[in-house]
Design a protein that fits this description.
The chain is mostly helical. It has two domains: about 45 residues, no CATH class; about 100 residues. It has six helices and two strands. The chain has a two-stranded antiparallel ribbon with strand order 1-2. Helix 3 packs antiparallel against helix 4. The longest helix has about 55 residues. It is elongated and about 90 Å long.
């Protein structure tokens, strides 16, 4: 898995500080925590790139992803289609010469709009269902990989965690 870039939290410091002020504050922070300038800070933030959304994607998940993308595009076409039909329906009022012909033509456009609405409803339902299924598959894959990764760790690894079992037991004994 690729490593993520690290950024330091700014905390309560303002952005108007000069570089020498920032260096002095960093040295104060280092002195307070007892760390050396080259040490990794515990308040470093890892910023994930957009590609990180797909780190847990497996081959079976691609089917849901492709279906979701296709139906997202198709459901996006419903809005321009309904706008086109409404435009043609309004144009029918302008060019109408006979009341009976107007009612017949507008009834036809109303049926077309109803069809576009029902089609849009179905396309959006499939679109959302495919994306929800893809998200659930991603979450299951992430849970499985993390759980399997935790199973292969030695017990010592858990005891050495800052907020792990080794740190929890003394807190509970107080």
């Amino acid at each position: 898995m690729p490593s993520l870039p690290k950024f330091r939290r700014s905390g309560n410091k303002t952005s108007r500080q000069t570089s020498s002020d920032k260096q002095a504050l960093e040295l104060e922070d280092l002195a307070e925590t007892g760390k050396q300038p080259g040490d990794t800070k515990s308040d470093d933030i890892q910023v994930a790139p957009w590609k990180a959304l797909f780190f847990f994607t497996a081959k079976p998940h691609i089917t849901c992803l492709v279906i979701g993308i296709i139906f997202a595009i198709l459901s996006g076409l419903a809005s321009p289609a309904s706008a086109l039909l409404v435009g043609k329906a309004v144009q029918g009022f302008v060019t109408a010469s006979d009341a009976n012909a107007l009612v017949k033509k507008e009834s036809q456009y109303a049926l077309y709009l109803m069809g576009v609405g029902l089609g849009s409803w179905a396309l959006h339902a499939i679109f959302f269902a495919a994306w929800v299924a893809f998200g659930e598959l991603q979450a299951k894959s992430a849970r499985d990989r993390l759980f399997n990764g935790m199973l292969i760790k030695d017990i010592e690894w858990y005891d050495l965690r800052q907020n792990g079992v080794g740190a929890l037991i003394p807190r509970l004994q107080v």
